[in-house]
Amino acid sequence: MQLHIIDISIIIGYLLLTILIGVYISKRASKGLDSYFLGENSMPWYVLGISNASGMFDITGTMWLVYLGFVYGLKSAWLPWIWPVFNQIFLMVYLSIWLRRSNVLTGAEWIQTRFGTGTGSKLSHISVVIFALVSVIGFLAYAFQGIGKFSSMFLPGTFSANTYAVIFLSITTIYVVSGGMFSVVFTEVLQFAIMTVASIAVAIIAMMKVSPSMLDNVIPEGWKNVFWGWHLDLDWSGFIDSVNTKIVDDGYSLFAIFFMMMMFKGILISMAGPAPNYDMQRILATRSPKEAGKMSGFVNVVLMFPRYLLIGGLTVLALAYFSPALKSMGSDIDFELVLPYAIKNFIPVGLKGILLAGLLAAFMSTFAATVNAAPAYIVNDIYKKYINPNASNKRYIFMSYISSLAVVAAGIGFGFIVESINEITLWIVSALWGGYTASNVLKWYWWRFNGHGYFWGMIIGIIAAMAVPKLFPELSAINGFPIILGISTIACIVGSLVTKPEDDEVLKKFYKTVKPWGCWGAIYQKVKAENPDFKRNKNFGRDWFNILIGLVWQIALVATPLYLVIKEVTPIVIGFTVIIITSIILKFNWLNKLED
Q1: Suppose 565 and one of 162, 181, 312, 533 were both cysteines; which one would form an S-S bond, judging by CB atoms 3.0 to 4.6 Å apart?
Q2: Does residue 446 sit in helix, strand or coil?
Q3: Domains of the chain, earliest start first
C-alpha cells in the first residue's frame, strides 16, 4: 500500500512519542518491584481501566470479529462469549475485589496466600509460574506473527514481515523495559485515544457511504436481528453462496446447543478468575479492592463501544463494496482482505495515518502489557524467592530489565518457528486454557481444596487439553471442553482428598482477608469461634443478580454501536434504553455497595 508523506509522518511521530514516554518515566519506575510492576499502586482506577481495555484492543481479534459480523450479522454480538468476553462482568462484580484483597505482586505469589508455604503450595507456585511464562511466550509469538502480517499488508514493502515484526517489537520493548508499569499504562492511554479516534472515524465513513437500502441488497433475511432460535436461520444463497459453507464449518448452525455449551464453558472460566497475565496485573496495580472492581467495570464501557463502532464500520463497508470480490473467490474466500480494502479505498490522507498508527498501537499495546507481566514472575517468584531474597531494589530492577529482554527474545524466536496466527491461537486456547479452569475455580470456592489438588489439576488438565484433540479429532474445541474439565476436576479432587488439608491458620487468614462465599462453612465456624463479631460474605445472591444484569448490560454495549452504524432507529433506542436501565440498577446494587 502506498502511503502519503503525511501518513508516514504521523506513524513515525507516534512511534517516537511512545519511546520518549518510556524514557521520561524510567526514573520513577526504578524505585522497586512494586513501582516497576504495579506502578506503586498509585494510579487511578479509570486510567488502569483504559490501559486494560487498550491491551485487549487486539487488531487480530478485531478482524476475527469483522468476519463474524459479515457472516452472522447482529447475531455475532453473542459469539465473543466463547472466549468468554463476559469474564469482565465476573471480575467487576466480585472477583477483582477478592484478588486485590490478597495484596500480592503476581498471581503466583497469590498461591502462597491461599495454600501457605508447604510442599503443595510450592508445587502449585511452580505450576503457575510455568503456566504464566509459557502463556506469555505464546502470546508474544502471536503478537510477532500478527504485527508482521499487518505490516506487510499496510506499510511500504521495504522489509519482510518478520523484519517489520522485529522492528516494531523492539521499539515497544524499549519503552516497556525503561518505564515498567508506568510506561505501559501511559502509552496505552495514548494508544487507546488514537484507536478510539480511528474507530469513530471509520464508523462515520461507513454511515456516510452506505445507506440502509444498499445494505439490504447484500444481506440475507435475519442478518439485522440480534436474537436467534433453535437454528441460526441465515441463508446466504444468492448472495455469497460459499458463506453457507463457512457457517457449517464453524459449527454454529444449531445455535441454541452451541450457545448452551458456550455459556457452560464461559461461566466456569469466568468463575476461575483472571489468568496470570496483564489483566491480573492491572487488578493488582489498583489502589484498593473497591477500585479494582471499578476498574474492571470501566473496561466494559471504554472497550466495547468504540471497538464495535470500528467492527461495524468495517463490516458495512465490506458488505456494500467488497461483496462481489469476495463472491468471486468461491470456496477460497479470504475475510482478512476486508481491512486493507477498506483502508485503501475509503480512508483519506491524514486519517489513514491515524488509523494505521492506531492499529499499530493495538498490537503494541497487547505486546507491551504482556511483556510487563512476564518478568514479574521471573524476578519476584523465582529470583527473589529462591535465588537472592536479600538483593537491593537496584538489583531487582536490573534483573527485571534482563528478564524482559529474555522473554521478548524467546517470544520472537518462537514467532519465527510458528507458521500462522491461527496455529498459535489454537495452541494457546486448547493446550493452555483448557487445563486451567478446574483448579482455578475450586481454589476460590472450596476450603478443602489444597495445593496438591491445584498442582495435579493444572498438570493433568493441560495434558488432557493436549491429548483430547488428538484422540478425538472430530470434536470441536468447545465440545471437547467438558471432557477436559471432567478429567481435570477428578485430578483436583483426588489430589486434595488423598493429602492433608492446608493448615487451619492459613485457611483462616485467607478467609478473613479475601472473604469469599462458597463452601467455606468449616473455616467460618473456626473463625467465628475465635472472633464472634466476624461477619461472613452473604453477597452470593446479590452478586449473581448483578452478573445477570451485567450480561444484559454488556450485550447492549456490543449490539448498540452495531445498530448505530447500520442506522436501525428502533433497535438503537431500545439498546440505549437497556444500557441506561441496567446502568442504573448496577449503580445502586453494585457500585454503591462496593467494599474494600
Answers
A1: 312
A2: strand
A3: 5-418+538-593 (1.20.1730)
